[in-house]
Write the structure tokens for this entry.
Amino acid sequence: MDLPAIEGGTPIRDKKIFYGHQYIDDADCKAVMDVLKSDFLTCGPKIGELEEKLCKVTGAKHAVVCSNDTAALHISCMAAGIGRYGSNPDGTGRTNISDTNGGSCGNSSSETNPNGVDEVITTPMTFAASANCALYCGARPVFADIDPETYNIDPASIEAHITEHTKAVVAVDYTGQAVKLDEIKAICKKHNLVLIEDAAHAIGTKYKGQAVGSIADMTTFSFHPVKTITGGEGGAILTDNDEYYQKLLLYRSHGITHDASLMNKEPDGSWYYQQIDLGYNYRMTDIQAALLISQLDKLPSFSKRRKEIVAKYNEAFADNDAIFVQKEIPESDTTRHLYILRLIPEKLKIDRRQFFDALGAENIVCNVHYIPVYYFPYYQKMGYKKGLCPNAEKLYDEEITLPLFYAMTDEDVESVIEAVNRITEYYHI
């Protein structure tokens, strides 16, 4: 039997390969250099150009780019009127953050939501921003469980957690696979909820042939370096709703407008502006926008290569009874951001941590996506407890994120496969 490197064998590869990596070519570099030599490093024409291109790629009516996906989620919740941004006759909003007391993953009650604050349902298997965006607005995140085979938020669990206080659903396209949008949209329509699709992983994905970004009430993207396309950082919100669009523009830039039609007096001159709401400095720079415009040209090839790698992994692991391959719904034509390998503990002599370390010894540097959000001390202090979402918690105990990025060679892919098979064979029960 082939001895794993962690047991004294020779590593599968000499050079480390990481779970994700950006791809930057000469066209990207030129796009950035052109901006650096231009008159506008920020607040310039590249912002509008990028927004137009995102609309063209997704089919959405409006795009608002911003500093990152966390900002995108925040101002999406603001635009949706969640928490303190909801309508109140006195204009003070409904709640403040100090009113949020956490609570269980179950339906609200006087015990779990004593102040009747707004609630936003999301998944615990995500980066913290998908839940934090509710807290930023003075609302309360409520965690629905995941489907144990797709790992996306379970529509039935969403429905089970809706209360009179629920205002929105933040549905995360985990790994890039689209959530069950038809079912979730129907639930939101039935209960008059805003659907915010956190598509940080999913640019390039289609649902029933329609591009993600043009389906939910608002859809957010991330352009972090390990995502399918990158601006170094950056985010975007896509929407067909004119009212949301106008609010998003305001909230992105301090609540300040240069639009005379929105002011309470005639402008004093061309320099004049007014702050008409309280927003944030969530603007994107033209440097980032230029890089993203160039990156969007490569999205079809990025998507194609990621699909090829996923197919190779799926085929290689299909008959390995020590691991489980993520299922994909037929409605989702997925541009996969992450490849999740799930261990079957009953078939292995080692746990996830030991498996992770064994892959590292083979120079396969993996990751884990994600720690359930309510495990974090900050959420625990608010009253959230382990045991809320059993399927999500079980996934966390068993998952490992394998390398997946555009520039991976076939040799890289084969070395990952060889390492996984070597370890599962050696430690198989």
Observations:
- The chain has a mean pLDDT of 94.
- Residues 299-317 form the longest helix (19 residues).
- The first strand starts at residue 17 and ends at 18.
